[in-house]
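_Backbone structure tokens_
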Amino acid sequence: MAAKLRVATTSLAGCFGCHMSLLDIDLRLFDLIERIEFDRSPLTDIKTVGDCDIGLVEGGVCNAENVAVLREFRRHCKVLVALGACAVNGGLPAQRNHLDLRDILAEVYQTSPGLAAGSAIPNDPELPLPLNKVHPLHEIVRIDYFLPGCPPSAEAIWKFLTDLIGGRTPSLGHGLLHYD
């Protein structure tokens, strides 16, 4: 029996919808587990990443912590896949890119209706430093494959992973890619 491939996942600035689509593979997850071993993933609750064959990353890069997580993930994954619109092009979080970050923070933390008098922008060293713009993954690290969609369907993720695990270049037909 061949050794199982190690697969890791992580989520950066996004909604976690791509991980939900992965879970929507449903019972085929059992078939997948016969062929792979999950490393870091919400399925395992492992917080650090070991050396892996395939890494799936959802979400864009919006803060210093995202940059560090993504670079660490890239170092440990032979193949890295940008999963979903946020990872591929910044997605919905990138809608803030045409605005000034200082103005956004002031609006959210200081001037929005309902805030307590004297509310301030958080300035705790435990909070990750926000970047001036949200970046797609390929602006930070080398990406081997892009799987677009918001989120990609379970069928698209299943086909993509089984192609990759089977040693084939992933090929998704017209019906598997959509952007709704």
Remarks:
- The chain has six helices and seven strands.
- Strands lie at 5-11, 36-38, 52-58, 61-63, 77-83, 130-135, 145-147.
